[in-house]
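INTERNAL AUDIT FORM
Audit reference: QA-55
Scope: verify that the stored structure record matches its stored sequence.
Auditor: D.O.
Record contents follow.
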Amino acid sequence: MPVSDTWIVTDTESGGVRARLQGRWTAGALDTRANWRAATQALAAVAPGAAWDLHALEGFDHLGALALWQHWGRQWPTELHARAEQRALIERVAAFPPVLPPAAREGWARRIDALGLMVIQALVQVRDFVALSGQLLLDGLRQFGAQTFIVNILGLAL
């Protein structure tokens, strides 16, 4: 069951939208998948460029600050109303570099696929080398006046 029925209340004020966060934005409140999904969907529903108000929050910790910071695109919003400790917590989260997702593990299927691609690339290289060698041979024969032999060689190939 969600900790908060409404995570964000949006008010339309003169000249823009204000998003007021309410409830608890803590690791304890966002511990289940349903709560996390509800909070992130509430963040996604806020119009871009909205003013943010954090004064009504009952609880706010590093996980709530990280969710906001990532939603804001790792940039400060144009207008933020927050208490000093809330702003300090967001500044602390903002100081850390973004965490890159771990690289996908190589499975047998990917390895076999990669091997197949390398074999195909090698065969293309061999084909191109044979074509280049043959063209160089024909050009060398032409240079020495063996035009009739070239016609006969091409005729045998057909």
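Auditor finding: record pair retrieved intact. The first strand starts at residue 8 and ends at 13.
Action required: none
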